[in-house]
Design goal:
- The chain is α/β, with parallel strands linked by helices.
- The protein folds into two domains: 37 residues; 210 residues, Leucine-rich repeat, LRR (right-handed beta-alpha superhelix).
- It has two helices and twelve strands; from the N terminus they run αβββββββββββαβ.
- It has a ten-stranded parallel sheet. A two-stranded parallel ribbon has the order 9-11.
- The longest helix has 35 residues.
- It is elongated and about 55 Å long.
Length: 250
Amino acid sequence: MTLSSRNQYFFLTFGISLLFLLMGCARIKDLKHSQEGNVLNLSRKGLTKFPEEVFKNKELRVLRLYGNEIDSIPDRISELTKLEKLYIGRNNLKYIPASIGELKNLKIFSAQYNKIESLPDEICNLPNLEQLWMNQNQLTSLPDSIGNLTNLEILQAKFNQLDSLPSSIGDCENLQFIYLNRNNLKALPKSLAKLSRLKELYLSGAGPLLDVPEEMCDLRYFELIQIDGNTALPACMYVLQANRLQIIRE
């Protein structure tokens, strides 16, 4: 082997060794962060069952199970009383257990891209829930007591089969962003006008011949509404369009 070839071989092997060393350090760092920060990421691991090892850490704050093939959440989920964020989207879930209502510290619950047909009433017992992500499921309704979620800020329910909204939604006093695109809504409750902090409402494809309540024109922070040809807006919203309201048509 010539000197030039030996040099090239040395730098190649050194580079590969360094790369594996850095990758190993990254894995160690991620593991250390998960342990110290009480964060567990088991996304895209090919899991078919909810992992039992999750329950070994009663201090768990964040659990990520996105992109597996999990078909159910066990009732034992109630044991994770410190849990603040649960991401279990793109699995094979058909229902959410009532025990989810025991997670009093839960702030974010994301179960998008599943086959969930309904939510248990107990999910409305979560006093700290700020974000509920249920896009791409098979929901036909939301719990009547959803108004108990007074800290809810974001409601994502696109691409479901919702045919109505409970009037109690107007009691979600901190709700700011509502996504209802691609549903089967027959009407919108006038209680939406009680959402004093509402900023954005997405209704494109939300249902046939929807009438937006005129009372919503009085919402101080309302700044964007997305609609389609099946949505009827009150005249006052077109007046607001010249000032602060952005109307997006699709």
